[in-house]
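Let's do one together. I've listed all components of the complex below, 441 residues spread over two lines.
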Amino acid sequence: MKGVQFRNHRVMGDIISLASRYRDEGADELVFYDITASPHGRTVDRSWVNKVAGVLDIPFCVAGGIRSLADAETILNLGADKISINTPALERPGLIEDLAKRFGAQCVVIGIDSSSENGNYTVYQNTGDPERSRSSQRSTLEWINEVQLRGAGEIVLNCMNQDGVKNGYDVEQLSKAREICGVPLIASGGAGTMAHFKEVFTTSKVDGALAATVFHSAQIKIPDLKTYLIKANIAIRPPEIKD
Amino acid sequence: MSSCPVIIATGGANLASLIFALKRLGNEPVVSEDPKVIKMASHIILPGVGAARDAMSRLKATNLASLIPNLKQPVLGICLGLQLLYSGSEEDNATCLNIIPGYASRFPKKTGLPVPQMGWNSLTNVKRTPLMNGVRDGDYAYFIHSYALPINEHTYVTANYGESFSAVVQYNNFYATQFHPERSSSVGSLILSNFLNI
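Okay, and this is what the predicted structure of the assembly comes out as:
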C-alpha cells in the first residue's frame, strides 16, 4: 500500500487531472495536504474535496488546518475518507478523542513531523512555514503512544531529516515507531528510488509508504514500482490494466 | 435498464463516496430512512461506519429494524452493514438484525497486526454468486474494520488478516461485503454494478 501526497495544490483542474492520473496508475490512496494551512491559522478552500471524491474510486485523506469537529465534518461530508491532523493535535491533544468519538478512529489520521537530533526524536509543529516551524518539546515515541491512547486510527510519521533529500526513508526511526505502533503506520519522507520503498516495507514493516516528489516528477512510475515490490514478495495490490 | 437504488441513512456514515460510485454507474441513488421509500426501491444498500449499537438504535427508532428482514428486493450491506445483518456483535454486545446467524468478533490482539485493518487486502475462495461475476481470487478490495464475521455456509468470499474471515456473504436476497466496494477501484465498481443487475 502506498500513497501519493499532494502539496500546495495549484488550480482545480490540476488537482482533478493529477488525482485521476494517479487513480489510473494504481495508487492505493491519495493524501491532499496544504502545508501552508496550519501556520497561518486559516483553513483551505474545501470545495475541491467534493470534486475529487467524484472522480476517485480509491480512498483519500485531507490534511491541513483541521482544528475542530466542524472542520472535520465538512471535509468528511464532502467525501474524504480520512482527515489528518498535525499541529492542532499538538496544541490540543483532546481534539483526537473528540474526532475519534464523533467519526470513528478509522478516519482519524495523526501526522507527525519528527526530527532526529543527537539520537533523540522530537516532534515539530507548524512545519509548513519555515519561519514558524519549531520543536514542540515532545518526544516522538511518547507522542506516538499518546495519540494511540487518545484514539488515532493511523499514524503518518514524516521523518524531517530525510524529507526532500531522496536518500531513503529513515528506517531506523520507523522501526522504533513500528515496535510501539499498534495502528497502521505510514512512512513519509526520503523516497528517492524503488529500492527505498522495498527497504522500508521489509525492514520497518510499515503498512504504507507515502511519497510526493518522485511521483509528481514521474521519476518513479507507480505501475513499475508495484511490479518491482511484488517481485520482492511484498503484499501489494497489483497495478491495474485499464482500457 | 435503470434501477432505483435507495441508500438507507444509518447515521454517522459518510455516504458521499458511495453516492458518487453509484452515479458513475449511471444511477441516481436516493438516501432515505423512510420505510415507504425503502419498500418501493429496486435495490437497497445498507452502509455503515461506526458502532453497531448506534446504528441499530437508529434503525429501531425509524422502524427499519423490523422492516429490513422482510425486504424481498436485493439488499447490499457494506462494512458495518454486513455485520448488522447478523445476530449480533461483540462490540458493546450489540444485538443486530438477526437475518443471518452468527456474531461479529474483534480481531484478536495475538496476531500482532494493527487493528483496525485499514487498507487493501486480497479476496480468496471466491464462490459463484451473481454479486461476484467477473471477480477473481487474488483481486484486491479496500477494508476498514476492527470486527469481522467467521466463515460459515453463507460465506461467498474470504479474506485473511491474521485469521480468515467472511469478506462477502449471501443469504437469500441479502448480500454483503465487509470491504468498501465504493473505494475498491474497478473491482468495487464491478461488484456494485453486479448488485444493481441482480
